[in-house]
Design goal:
Helices cover 44% and strands 12% of the residues. By secondary structure, the chain is α/β, with parallel strands linked by helices. The structure holds nicotinamide-adenine-dinucleotide.
Length: 336
């Protein structure tokens, strides 16, 4: 990172009045850095890309830079879009590899990542799509540095990448257990470490961890996955304590069932509805509505993204270590 970029970063952080010189410098830095970024960056920022922070268009997150793991689809993409609408520039970091050993269903493709980047840019934000694995600390360090080099700072990290896994406790192989722990737990820890390397010297930041309602209760169909989501909450609270004095606020969103490929895929649905001839997400949700607190029994990704935006914005500037259940009332019957 150059000195001029460091200066630009602090100007953006301060949310000061728009400076056209700063904007053209940032654009030049973006083009230069993108050109040097190598093949992992999909469709790097073009010279004509417009910042979401143009004069006369100041929004809550104008001048902020958000980095989203697992951003190619689902909750990650919806969060990126909400943050972009609020004015942030976006870095999408995703494994973009459908077939990952010991994961039960396909993850995103490079085409998904490219399409997500296009959707975010259509909202007027600048966006990088970076292919990388949250199990790889060096890849996270490099991608976050690209965020700073291209856009000037790293203000918001959504610790979102994760994989589900269904089955009875007795059936999981050692490799399956390690894989879900390495992605959901160690991946979240590595993402936090990489973010803190930049946010601590910057003395500001928001980290938003996507846990699950299954991180708040036991579940016989998702026993290992649920334990990773409990672990995430414990870690996020520890991160909140560790980084609070550095003005880095760590909070958790714990969604109920969301209609994304993580839940809405034939393998997971087959295990959730073992007696159904043709298991479908709609049928499963329909069956759950009768016993639900509200008249809904699932979420859309945007419902979760709104909570992410809440923890990224001004409303929560004195909030850390909290867990926000977004679960259509499903936790109303549990103990506080
Ligand atoms: N869908 C639900 O019902 C639900 C409910 C509660 C919590 N969650 C959590 O929300 C988060 C997002 O899930 P989603 O529902 O959007 O799923 P999704 O499968 O649609 O999206 C997850 C994204 O993460 C990426 N990813 C997976 N492993 C990765 C890795 N090692 N490195 C980088 N990227 C990786 C995938 O390619 C995919 O694009 C997960 O942490 C999940 O546990 C989901």
């Amino acid at each position: 990172m150059t000195n001029s970029n460091q200066n630009l970063a602090s100007t953006a952080q301060d949310g000061g009045p728009e400076n056209p010189d700063r904007r053209s410098l940032l654009a030049a830095a973006a083009v230069g850095a993108a050109a040097a970024a190598g093949p992992a960056v999909l469709g790097a920022t073009s010279a004509s890309a417009q910042s979401s922070d143009s004069a006369g268009d100041r929004r809550e997150l104008s001048g902020k830079v958000a980095f989203i793991t697992g951003g190619a689809r689902g909750i990650g993409l919806a969060s990126a879009e909400e943050l972009a609408k609020a004015g942030a520039d976006i870095v999408l970091f995703d494994i973009a590899t459908p077939n990952v050993p010991h994961v039960q269903y396909p993850l995103s493709s490079e085409a998904d990542l490219q399409s997500a980047k296009t959707s975010v840019e259509a909202l007027g934000a600048r966006c990088l799509g970076i292919k990388g694995d949250v199990r790889d600390r060096a890849a996270l360090d490099s991608a976050m540095q690209q965020a700073v080099d291209n856009f000037g700072s790293l203000d918001i990290v959504v610790v979102n990448a994760g994989v589900s896994q269904a089955g009875a406790i007795r059936d999981f192989s050692a490799d399956e257990v390690s894989t879900v722990y390495e992605i959901n737990v160690a991946g979240a820890i590595k993402t936090t470490q990489a973010a803190a390397r930049i946010m601590v010297p910057q003395n500001s930041g928001r980290m938003i961890f996507i846990s699950s309602a299954l991180g708040r209760m036991g579940n016989e169909l998702f026993p290992v996955y649920a334990s990773t989501k409990w672990a995430m909450i414990g870690f996020a609270k520890s991160a909140a304590v560790t980084y609070g004095k550095s003005n880095i606020l760590c909070n958790v969103v714990a969604p109920g069932l969301v209609d994304t490929p993580l839940a809405n895929n034939s393998v997971i649905l087959g295990k959730m509805m073992p007696d159904a001839a043709n298991p479908s997400f709609d049928a499963m949700v329909e069956g759950a509505v009768a016993g639900s607190t509200l008249n809904v029994a699932h979420l859309e990704p945007i419902d979760v993204a709104k909570a992410v935006l809440f923890f990224a914005g001004d409303s929560t500037s004195k909030v850390a270590g909290e867990v926000f259940d977004v679960s259509y009332g499903s936790l109303s019957r549990t103990i506080a």
